[in-house]
């Protein structure tokens, strides 16, 4: 058993065959090459964070860009209007209820 994910393995394989130059990590190799190393993951997180802030700014200028009252708008657009906050709160409540029920069903 290998602890490498298939996509990381595929990339490593291509590097070994000389098809792919072993470029420095980061710069969204996470999405381009499926590399899941710490550097690429951090770069990808940073990239997404930036994109979210850009989207939030765009949404502030034009609130019609996204559908409101949904959890995805709350998360992906960082919208904090009341309908979106309500959607997030409702999800949290449902999730907690689900967890309680799952716990209740388990026997020891
Ligand atoms: Zn990497
Ligand atoms: Zn909203």
Provide a descriptive summary of the structure in words.
The protein has a domain at 1-47. Helices cover 64% and strands 0% of the residues. It is built from five helices and no strands. The chain binds zinc ion (ZN) (2 copies). One zinc ion binds next to helix 5.
Give a concise summary.
The protein is mainly alpha-helical. The chain has helices spanning 6-16, 29-32, 38-61, 71-76, 82-105. The chain has a domain at 1-47.
How does the SSE layout of this entry go?
Blueprint: H1 6-16, H2 29-32, H3 38-61, H4 71-76, H5 82-105
This protein binds zinc ion (2 copies).
One zinc ion (ZN) is lined by residues 25, 29, 35, 37, 39-40.
Roughly how many Å is the radius of gyration? 20 Å
Q: Helix/strand-derived class? A: mainly alpha
Average per-residue pLDDT, rounded, comes to: 85
Order of helices and strands: HHHHH
What kind of sheet is the major sheet? Answer: none
Backbone shape: flat
Helix content: 55-70%
Alpha carbon gap, first and last residue: 31 Å
The proportion of strand residues reads under 5%
Number of helices: 5
Question: Which features would summarize this protein structure in a list?
Answer:
5 helices, single chain, binds zinc ion, 0% strand, 64% helix, 108 residues, mainly alpha
């Amino acid at each position: 058993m290998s602890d490498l994910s298939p996509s990381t393995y595929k990339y490593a394989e291509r590097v070994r065959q000389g098809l792919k130059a072993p470029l420095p990590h980061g710069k969204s190799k996470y999405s381009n090459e499926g590399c899941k190393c710490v550097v690429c993951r951090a770069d990808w997180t940073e990239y997404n964070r930036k994109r979210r802030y850009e989207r939030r700014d765009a949404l502030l200028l034009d609130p019609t860009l996204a559908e409101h009252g949904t959890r995805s708008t709350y998360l992906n657009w960082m919208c904090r209007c009341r309908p979106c906050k309500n959607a997030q709160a409702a999800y949290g409540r449902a999730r907690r209820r689900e967890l309680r029920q799952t716990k209740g069903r388990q026997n020891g």
